[in-house]
Write a structure and sequence with these properties.
Helix content is about 5%, strand content about 40%. With about 240 residues, the protein is mainly beta. The strands form six sheets. It has a four-stranded antiparallel beta sheet, with no helix packed on it. It has a four-stranded antiparallel beta sheet with strand order 5-6-7-8, with no helix packed on it. The protein has a four-stranded antiparallel beta sheet with strand order 9-10-11-12, with no helix packed on it.
Length: about 240
């Protein structure tokens, strides 16, 4: 049985400048600061423990503005990458909240994004973006140049039939996703993706070969109803936020 204890819980104070509505993504800097996406307030909050250090952003389409920010990643130089979801782009900031660069625009072509939902920084420095409505994972260089993607929209049944009938890759090329929403990586370099609409989590090795998937729609142990977020914890335990259960 896994034992869990809470060291600290905080909810921001009464003023509008520090309230959260709701938090939708977070990451820690190398110094241990918590960087939080404040979704409906269209801004980013940075905390040292339970103390708010700074806040930046507002609703809008200009650089430094957001429209429902979701996933956050922080690189080794403490640059902050934000999945600016409804603006269909990724924005990069320094730790002080100064805008550095923006890449992506609405679409399904190379370098385009459709509701980016989560971000992870690879050891190479490349940026991997989970696109909810393009049903794929797309890589970008540190300068924001698209390096390609994997995935297309498809159900578990379609994927199984494609394998069974050896469907040509130009017609259907797994992996298939149905509204993927989150990604994380374990200590061995394996990746885990919440394939929300297919009610499962998909595991890939460090070479992006699919190892396994687990979960199906339902309310029992091991089943999911639209898993929204996956996180790898101590000893590579997986924690899955199961939205509708």
């Amino acid at each position: 049985m896994l034992s869990i204890s809470f060291e600290n819980v905080f909810r921001s104070g009464d003023g509008e400048s520090v309230q959260l509505s709701p938090p939708s993504g977070f990451a820690f800097t190398p110094q241990g600061y918590l960087v939080l996406a404040d979704d409906f307030n269209h801004r980013i909050q940075i905390y040292d423990g339970d103390q708010l250090l700074r806040s930046f952003g507002e609703k809008g389409k200009e650089n430094g503005q957001f429209h429902y920010p979701k996933g956050i990643a922080v690189d080794a130089e403490e640059n902050i990458y934000v999945a600016d979801s409804w603006n269909h782009r990724v924005q990069k900031f320094d730790l002080l909240g100064n805008h550095q660069t923006t890449f992506g625009s609405c679409g399904e072509g190379k370098g385009e994004l459709n509701e980016p939902y989560d971000i992870i920084i690879e050891d190479s420095g490349n940026i991997l973006v989970v696109e909810r409505y393009n049903h794929r994972l797309q890589w970008f260089s540190p300068k924001g140049k698209s390096l390609g993607w994997i995935g297309q929209r498809g159900t578990v049944l379609e994927e199984h039939l494609a394998y069974f009938y050896e469907t040509s890759a130009n017609l259907f090329s797994p992996p298939a996703f149905e509204f993927p929403t989150s990604i994380d990586r374990d200590s061995q370099g394996n990746y885990y993706v919440t394939d929300s609409g297919n009610h499962r989590v998909v595991k890939f090795n460090k070479n992006w070969q699919r190892v396994l998937s687990f979960g199906e729609q339902g309310e029992e142990v091991g089943q999911f109803q639209y898993p929204l977020c996956v996180s790898v914890g101590q000893n590579d335990f997986l924690y899955v936020a199961d939205l509708n259960n």
